[in-house]
Each structure stands twice: as C-alpha cells, then as structure tokens.
Design a protein that fits this description.
A hairpin with a 2-residue loop joins strand 2 and strand 3. The protein has a three-stranded antiparallel sheet with strand order 1-2-3, with helices on one face. Helices cover 33% and strands 15% of the residues. The chain has two domains: 58 residues, no CATH class; 82 residues, Arc Repressor Mutant, subunit A (Orthogonal Bundle). The radius of gyration is 15 Å and the shape is globular. By secondary structure, the chain is of the alpha+beta class. Its EC number is 2.1.1.63. This is Methylated-DNA--[protein]-cysteine S-methyltransferase. It holds the Pfam family DNA_binding_1. Keywords: DNA damage, Methyltransferase, Transferase. GO terms for molecular function: methylated-DNA-[protein]-cysteine S-methyltransferase activity.
Length: 166
C-alpha cells in the first residue's frame, strides 16, 4: 500500500482513472475536494458526509450526467461565488471560455481564471468546463500542458464527451 503523509488530511479518498479525489469534511459539510495523483490510496470515509460525497464522486466517475447534491461549506468571496455560480450553470458536454464567463459576471477573463483556480469544490463546481479562447487553458492554477492538473482537465472533458481538448 502506497502511503503519503498528506493522506491523513482527507476524510475520504476515491480512486479515479487519473489518480484520486480527496475529500475533506468538517462539521457536517464538505470543506474541499482535491485532485490527487496516483500516489494516494483509496481511503474509506470516516463520517457520513464524506461517505455521501465519496458515493457521489463515484457516481459521477461512472456517469458524467450525475448531478451532485452535497452540503458545501460556505467559502469564497462574493466575486468568487458569482463566478462559481456561473460555472455551475454550464451543462455537461459544453464549455465556455473565461471571456464568456467574464461577460456574464461583468469582469475580466483573468479574474475569472483566478476564481476558477480558487475553486474548493471541483466536479461539483465544474471549472474544467471553462477554457481559454484559443485552447484548453489552465486548470487549478496550473497551465503547463504536461502538468497533472491539465491532464485531469483533459480527462474530465473527455469523460463528459467534449470534443477537441485531448
């Protein structure tokens, strides 16, 4: 069994094709979802809300049309929440650009990108559905085409049957 010192930070870890998804819960709310590399082993949920989240993550990984229903801890600035709400409205199988979201929230594409990178609830708030005007764009504050996180974004878009971003 591979072990990572950060393993104990999570209240559950779900295996995924690209690695894993770490879940952190606190006081009956989900506090964070994190994309993790394959060096993290699965971890059984330690509480009811983590178990609920793990089951929902597994359902999404099996069916990209699955819709999350989780108690998310309130977090983020008013602006981030406005951006995250706009992102949450993007249907599965579609993408919008940072500029598209910026126009909806009356801001700038760079500010939208920063809010996307600060998203504590990826998958639930599907920031992978936001791309650059001329290609894939970055993901989780990473923009190197060969980075783990950009690879996760590619996998998620392929999983949701979005063409052109492999």
């Amino acid at each position: 069994m591979k072990q990572n010192a950060a393993h104990s930070l999570f209240t559950a870890i779900v295996e995924a094709s690209f690695g894993a998804i770490g879940i952190r819960s606190e006081d009956g709310h989900i506090r964070e979802l994190v994309y993790l590399p394959a060096s993290f082993d699965e971890k059984a949920a330690v509480d009811a809300v983590s178990e609920r989240a793990a089951l929902q993550v597994e359902r999404y990984l099996g069916d990209p049309d699955f819709r999350f229903d989780l108690p998310l801890a309130p977090i983020g600035t008013d602006f981030q929440n406005k951006v995250w709400q706009a992102i949450a409205e993007i249907p599965r199988g579609e993408v919008l650009t940072y500029g598209d979201i910026a126009r909806r929230v009356k801001s700038a594409p760079r500010a939208v990108g920063q809010a996307c990178g600060a998203n504590w609830y990826p998958l639930v708030i599907p920031c992978h559905r936001v791309t650059a005007a001329n290609g894939l764009g970055g993901f989780s504050h990473y923009d190197d085409e060969t980075s783990f996180h950009v690879g996760v974004k590619r996998w998620l878009l392929a999983h949701e049957k979005v063409e052109g971003y492999r």
